[in-house]
Amino acid sequence: MCIRYLGFVLLIWAPGRLRAQDAAQSCRAPSLDGGFFAPKQEVYSHESKLSYTCNDGRKLTVRGWWATVTCDNGKWSHQPQCIDANDCIPPNVPDGKYVGTQKEWFTGGERIRIKCDKGFELRNQTATARCINGTWFPVPTCEKSLHTCGEPPKVPHAVIIHEEYQELFPVDSEVQYECEDGYTMEGGDAMKSIICISGTWTDGPTCRSSTSSGSERDFEPQKTTINICGKPPNVPNGDIVGIGTMFLKYQCNSFYSLVGEENVECYSNGKWSDVPTCKVTYCSVDTDARHELVSVGVKYMKHGVLHAQSAAQPCSPPKLEGYFVPDQESYSHETSLSYACNDGRKPATEGWWATSTCENGVWSPKPQCIDENLCFPPNIPHAIYKGTQSGWYDKGTIRVKCDKGYELKNQAATAKCENGTWSFLPMCEKSLHTCGEPPKVPHAVIIYQEYQELFPVDSEVQYGCKDGYIMEGGDAMKSIICMSGNWTDVPTCKSLHTCGKPPKVPHAVIIHEEHQEQFPVDSKVQYQCEDGYTMEGGDAMKSIICISGTWTDGPTCKSLHTCGKPPKVPHAVIIDEEYQELFPVNSEVQYQCEDGYTMEGGRTMKSIICISGTWTDGPTCRSSTSSGSERDFEPQKTTINICGKPPNVPNGDIVGIGTMFLKYQCNSFYSLVGEEKVECYSNGKWSDVPTCKVTYCSVDTDARHELVSVGVKYMKHGERRELHCVKNPKWWFAHSSVATCSDGIVTLTKCCNWYDKQTVSLTSESICLHVHFTFIWNCLLKN
User: Fold this and answer.
1) Which is deepest, 160, 287, 659, 739, by most CB within 10 Å?
2) Cα–Cα distances in Å, from 597 out to 463, 604, 616, 660?
3) What is the pLDDT of residues 167-185, one digit of tens each?
4) Which H, E and C letters describe 34-75, residue by residue?
């Protein structure tokens, strides 16, 4: 009673403690070194798919530049992996294969050896290929051998043994024939072989009926070939495990032992030697017939051992409209037979003979003979067609449809079965409007689409950016379409925060330059001027910073021998020269006096030259009329040369120069206050000059003891950023301070940790997601 009750308790509790999870399991995000995938999640439900690709310099271990994997009950259909772009994946060799160690990929420089299938030989005797720059060179080719033989000839009342059907046999191939029961070969041989020589089979055997009239002479029986003795003796619970020229070898089934000789010999009088028997050596217990035992059926035991019966079952002879060898009453597990069909029939597989193997009491494949006028399913590359319930086709036609990216040649869509063969087979060829694989886009992968080499017209595929990137225009995804053999324009994925390569600065070099394409937010890069140049402002070095995907302004390097702006000469203007701040050594500029003024010496123009950082002396323009007092006048807008040096706007630059105005623009992270255009008046004065107001903030976490030290963080105007607080040992959870940037001033919320425990209360919300609980704590100050 106690035992039953305990068993009942275990049945109640075991499911909660020990039972395997019946529900389909989800998958964790795969690890992918050197690549990325989309969609990016921590957990993927059963049957979810993700697409992945590899970074520059890497490639997949499968064909194509992207691939998909499926979550199958907690495991991915295959492990995403990226390898060096110079490595090679195993080649596809038609009618051949590579031999040696089977690997997922081969490193650059490795060699492989190719072996052709039977009936094929290597073109140009090239048997090896080498992995060079990610491809195999040369690629060995297998072609049909000139000395190959077709299928062996069909011999009445005979079948080929120990040989699977195949269409081609290489030179020197040998196949053996054996006559069906009741027939013998001419010459008395039990078997006869034919050989493939220079594309032709040698002569085959002839099987004649083994019954003949005539008196027999008395003689002493001699050992002879086993075909003389006819049908092999049946040994109950035993099988033939070996066939010699003049004997059969027997072996008993599991749980039986042999009594007598294992070899049975054939004598010239047509009789066999003494046949052994198989004695039972096992016991059985029928639990259904014993009420004191739990009913679990019949249990079998060897002598002295408890053992459940699990021996593989033998097979009975197949029912067949044909004949087979060897012809036995029983066939043990994994025994094979060969068979052929009667006239008007053929095997239900390719070829005029076939083989089948006994697998635990069942023949595989099932020996079967069908009408010789039936057709097997046709092999049409890149095509699909409607199947039949039987697996083969009667007289009539089938309609063929081509795979995506292919079209019917000559618009012929039907195949006709006549006399057991297809009189015509349609062909599917690549469509002229088909597109190849979609182009690879940096930082993007194709989603919801298995890899394929060809796409039919009007196909649409979607790209998704990897984590941390967004498509230009802000779209989460973008599609391209196959139109008349070409894909429409592909998208571009732009980093959300990272910066590209730092800008090049004339006559400056980057100190400790990192050779990388992308720089994370808050990265710093330092510039230093080349020899013979100095930075404006006199600094030895200047840094630029990556803030929200943009570099701050870089430095300007000025030559030590460079001249500044040419001097202003009253009543003169510089001609044929664009405005600029700096002029290299040996530069020459020309002055011309305004109307009513002339140069000393009567010249109309005069040049000055930049020599070792200094301009030579300029001209003097004097009035060409008599002197007198100047009349009062209202200043008018005039050409900018009258006003002299352009006004300096700190953190701003001149971005446009008109005849009578200058246009200003502020640097990144600064905003313009005032008019962007500054105009020149005839009194030599400029209009009001704008200013540039800072629009970014910085937080030095190293200088704030309540924050986790991560260096200086930069923010644009209006940006909010969460900064981690130093955790207080009295608290279970860490907290953060929110920094907000406004007009160059940063404000930070206080860390909860730094309040006294008595002055803070906690409220909580719990969110249940994928059976994981996330607690969100809000700090509330008590009054």
Assistant:
1) 160
2) 70, 10, 21, 21
3) 888 888 899 999 988 888 8
4) CEEEECCCCEECCCCEEEEEECCCEEECCCCCEEEEEEECCE
Instruction: Look over the chain and give the mean of its residue pLDDT values, rounded to a whole number.
Output: 81
How far is it, in rounded angstroms, from Cα 113 to Cα 90? 11
Cβ contacts of 650-653, under 8 Å, gap ≥ 24: 650/691, 650/692, 651/692, 651/694, 652/690, 652/691, 652/692
Q: Read off the pLDDT band of 433 (50, 70, 90).
A: confident
| Tokens 């992270």 -> residue | 669
Query: What's the CA gap between 246 and 740, in Å, rounded?
Result: 99
Amino acid at 655: V
Instruction: Indicate the residue type of 179.
Output: C
What gap in Å lies between CA 522 and CA 506, rounded to an integer?
Answer: 24
Distance in angstroms between the alpha carbons of the first and the last residue of the chain: 66
For the chain, the domains span: 24-56+444-496, 96-144, 158-209, 374-430, 508-558, 696-781
Question: Could you say which of 2.10.70.10, 3.30.565.10, 3.40.50.1820, 3.30.70.260 is the CATH number of the domain covering 508-558?
Answer: 2.10.70.10
Question: Residue 209: what are its φ and ψ, rounded to 5°?
Answer: -60, 140
In this prediction the pTM is 0.40
For 377, half-sphere exposure in the C-beta direction (CA atoms, 13 angstrom radius) is: 13
Give the C-alpha separation, 587 to 607, whole Å.
10
CATH code of the domain made up of 96-144: 2.10.70
pLDDT at residue 2, rounded to an integer: 37
Q: Which of 29, 34, 33 is nearest to 44 (CA)?
A: 29
Report how far residue 152's alpha carbon sits from residue 439's, in angstroms, rounded to the nearest whole number. 50
CB 529 within 8 A of CB 476: no
Q: Which CATH class is domain 24-56+444-496?
A: mainly beta
CA distance 582 to 569: 18
CA 689, CA 663: separation in Å to the nearest integer?
A: 10
Write the DSSP string, 185-242: ETTS-SEEEEEEETTEEPP---EEES---SPPPP----B--GGGG-SPPP-TTEEEEE
Amino acid identity of residue 782, one-letter, is: K
* Residue 606 β-bridge partners: 591
Report the alpha-carbon distance of residue 260 to residue 242 in Å, rounded: 16
Q: Which DSSP category does 646 fall into? A: P
Burial class (CB in 10 A: 0-12, 13-18, 19+), 656: exposed
Q: Which DSSP category does 757 fall into?
A: G
User: What would the pLDDT profile of 140-149 be if each residue is shown by its tens digit?
Assistant: 788 888 788 8
Q: Are 604 and 594 in contact (CB under 8 A)?
A: no
The predicted-structure confidence for 365-400, as pLDDT tens digits, reads as follows 889 898 888 888 888 888 888 766 667 787 778 888
Interatomic CA distance for residues 163 and 177, integer angstroms: 10
The candidate with the shortest Cα–Cα distance to 388, out of 377, 373, 404, 380, is: 377
